[in-house]
Amino acid sequence: MTATASAAVKDPLGLHARPSVALVKLAKSFQAAIEISAGDTGAWVPAKNLMQVMKVKAGAGAILSFRAEGPDAGAAVAALKRLVEADFAGGDDA
Amino acid sequence: MRDPMSPYRSAPYHSGLRGRPVAPGAVTGPLVRLAAPAAPAAAAAGAGLDFAAARAAAALELEALIAAAGAGPAADVVAFQRELIDDDSLIGAVEARIGAGEPALAAWCGVLDGEIGALAQAEDEVFRSRTADLVDLRDRVAGHLAGVTASHPDLPAHAVVHADDLMPSRFLAIDWDAAGGIALGQGSAASHVAMLARARAVPMVVGLGSIGFGPGGLDDGETVTLDGDAGLLTRAAPGTPHGRRAAAAAAPDLAALGHGAAVTADGIKVETHINIVSLADLARPEAAYADGIGLVRTEFLFADRLPGEDEQTAVYRDLLAWAAGRPVTIRTLDVGGDKPLAGVTAAGEANPALGLRGIRLSLARPEIFRVQLRALARAAVHGQLEVMFPMVAVPREFDAAAAMMQAEVEALAAAGVPARRPKLGMMVEVPSAAIAVERFAAEFYSIGSNDLTQFVLACDRSSGLVGDLFDPLDPAVLDLIQRVVAHGKALGRKVALCGELAADPTGLAALIACGLRQVSVPPAALARARAAIVRHRRAGPGRYGD
C-alpha cells in the first residue's frame, strides 16, 4: 500500500541535526520504503538516510511531506507526521 | 576617545581581538594553540583497520561517548555522527570506490570531503555549521584506517585554547573543569561546539580572525583574558591572577530586573525593546520583559510567496495585540543585498550590497509596497504602531514612501475601511542618512549598527580576509551615532538602535555615552542588555552631554 502525510516544521532552526536524527531513526523502525520532501518543489529523498534528509534543508515553517510504500506504510507516515507535529519531542537545539 | 596609533582596532575600548561571543563567562589564563590533527591522508597507510572494522571501531567509540554524556546536547551531537556512520548513501559510495580498487582511506576521505564541500556552500548557517561534524567523523574513521590514534593534549589550568575551528569530539576529549575557554579564528555560533560550550559553561568566542599575528596579535603562552560576554580576547595586564568568572548572562534574571525601562546605576533610563523575526519570537519567555518591539523584520511573511493585504493586516494586528499598548515598530520589506527573494529582487548585480535593496526595491515595486502600506494603515487603528523604511539614503526616498502611505490611508478612508497613518520613521544605516540626518523628515530614527558599520568602514564583516576591520565601536561610527542622537534630542524625535551591540557591556557603555536611551536586541540578548544597563555607571565626566 501507499500512504502520504505532511506537517510543518516548528523548530526555529528548522530540520537541524537532532530532529533529523530522530526522524531517520523513526523511519528506520518501519519496513516500508519512505521518502521525504520539503515545500512544493523539493526533491523526494529517502527518509532512512541521514545525509539525504539533511540535504532537504527544511527551515522553520517548511512543510515536510512523507510518502511510503510497503506493508506498514500508513503507520509509518502517521508516526512521522506526529513526530514533526510534536516538534521532535522538544528539547534543546542540536 | 581616539587613538591615532591604532588604525585597525578601537584601542580605547580594548587592546586585542574582537570576535562574536557565543558562550558567556570569562577566563584569564595562558593562551594555548590546539594544533590541527595531522591530516589523516598523509599518515602512514597499511597499519590500520579495513573499512568495516574502522567503521565498527568508530561506532563503538561514539556509543561510549553517548553513554558518558547522558541525556543532553553532548549526546545529541554525538548521536548525529553515530547515525551518519550507518548512512547507506555514504557507506555505499565509499564501498563502491574501494571495490573499484581505491585504498579505503582515500575512498573514505574522498566521499566525506565531497559532502563537506557541498555542505560548506549552504546558505543557511545552521546547515553550513554541520560541516564540522562531518570533518570530525571523517577524521575519527580515518584515524582507524590509518592506524593513528588521537592524542589529547595536557592543558595547563585555565588555558584559553585557540584554533581556527574546533571539532565536537575534540571538545569532548578535553577536561573543561581544568581548562578555561575557547577562542576560535573562524567558527560559528550555530556550531555544535558552541552549543556544547554553552551547556558546559565554557566561555567561547568565534570569528577572532588571525589570532597569532597582525595588529593586536597575541603570542602562545602569554596570559590573556577571554570574555565570552563581550566577544573579546585581550592581553592581560601583568600580574592578573588566572581564573574563571561565571557567566554574566547566567546571573541576570529578567524577573529580578523587573519590567519597565532599565535604569543605570547612576540613574539613566534606557528602554530595552526586542527585535523579532517571526511571531514565534513572541512566545519566548524573555519577550514579556521588553518595553516594546523595536524591530519587526517583515521578511518572514514573504518567505515563499507574496502575502495578501488581509493576511498581512492580521499578522500586524496580532503583533499589536501581543504588545498590549507597548509600541511596535514594523520595518517594511527589506530584501535585496544579501537577502534575495525569488521573483522580487534583482539578479546579477555586480555589487548587491549597494544595489536595489530596502526602500529602493519597495519604491521600484509599488504593487508590492502598496499592499504592505495598506495592511499597516489598517492595523494602525489597533495599537501603537510605528512604521520605518530600511536603507533610506536620500530624503526623496523617505518623502516618496511617506506620500504613498498618505495616499493609501486616504484611499482606505474613502472606501470606508478603518485605517490610520502610523508614525513614520527610517532606519539610519547608510552613512548619508547619518551625516545629513537633519535633511530627513522622519518622525523617529532607528540606527542599524551592522549596516552602518559595514558602510562606514567599507568592510564586509563576513569576509574572513577583512572582517577584523568591522568594529561598531570605531570612533567614526560612534560619531555618526552621536550625531543622530543629538539631532533627535534637539527636535524631540525618538532615536533607537537595533543590534547585538547593545547587549555587549562595552558597546552599551559607548552607546549610553553617545546619549542613546533606547535599544532593541534579539530576545535571547534581552537579559544581558538589561543586566548591563543596571550595572552601568558612567566612568568619568561625560563627554557626550547628558
Question: How many β strands of chain B by DSSP?
Answer: 18
The amount of helix of chain B comes to 25-40%
- The N- and C-terminal alpha carbons of chain B lie at a distance of 17 Å
Largest interface: A-B, 27 and 28 residues
Work out the strand percent of chain B.
Answer: 15-25%
Annotation field: number of helices of chain B = 18
Please give the share of residues in helix of chain A: 25-40%
Let me know the average pLDDT of chain B: 84
Shape label of chain A: globular
Q: Please describe the biggest sheet of chain A, giving its number of strands, its sense, and whether it closes into a barrel.
A: 4 strands, antiparallel
Low-confidence runs of at least 5 consecutive residues of chain A: 90-94
- What class do helices, strands and sheet pairing of chain A give? alpha+beta
**Residue share in β-strands of chain A:** 15-25%
Identify the strand order in the major beta sheet of chain A: 1-4-2-3
Oligomer: heterodimer
Class by SSE composition of chain B: alpha/beta
Q: Which outline of chain B best applies?
A: globular
Please tell me the overall pLDDT of chain A.
85
Number of helices of chain A: 3
Would you write up a description of this structure?
The complex is a heterodimer of chains A (94) and B (546). Chain A is of the alpha+beta class. Chain A has helices at residues 17-28, 50-55, 73-85, and strands spanning 2-8, 33-38, 45-46, 63-69. In chain A, strands 1-4-2-3 form a 4-stranded antiparallel sheet, with helices on one face. In chain A, helix 1 (17-28) packs antiparallel against helix 3 (73-85). The longest helix of chain A is centred in the last third of the chain and has 13 residues, at 73-85. The radius of gyration of chain A is 12 Å and the shape is globular. The relative contact order of chain A is 0.33. In chain B, helix 1 runs antiparallel to helix 2 (73-84). In chain B, strands 1, 2, 3, 4, 5, 6, 7, 8 and 9 form a 9-stranded mixed sheet that branches. In chain B, strands 11-12-13-14-15-16-17-18 form an 8-stranded parallel barrel, surrounded by 5 helices. Chain B has helices at residues 51-69, 73-84, 88-99, 104-120, 125-128, 131-146, 168-173, 192-200, 254-257, 309-323, 359-364, 366-379, 395-414, 431-435, 449-456, 475-491, 505-513, 526-535; strands at 16-18, 20-23, 26-33, 160-163, 181-184, 204-206, 223-227, 232-235, 243-245, 262-263, 269-276, 293-297, 328-331, 385-389, 423-428, 444-448, 494-498, 518-521. The two termini of chain B are 17 Å apart. Chain B is an alpha/beta fold and 546 residues long. Chain B has 18 helices and 18 strands.
